[in-house]
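Protein entry
_____________
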Amino acid sequence: MAARAAPYLEDLNPAQREAVEALDGPVLMLAGAGTGKTKALTARIAHLLHTGQARTNEILAVTFTNKAAREMKERVARILGQPVEGMPWLGTFHAICVKFLRRHAELVGLKSNFTIL
């Protein structure tokens, strides 16, 4: 008897499932609005965590809005059945860039407590 697929894989179409299950290197998903990119990305994050291929602090997931970042964290938590803690690199483009710049502020002549106007 074949092993049953993880529940988060069952609702994906073949292209989404291929992207989610690809474990060697990054995956670029290009598709139009409403085609399931967020669903596939969320399932991929869950799959990487579920299979032990990555830890929460090793995943970079960039969104354009705070709402999308919050929803992505919530979806991953729902898929895994537990809160997702320690995902510092899941956020908006702006939030991730600020975090990176604060960590390395001295390299560009800034103090880490710089102000954004």
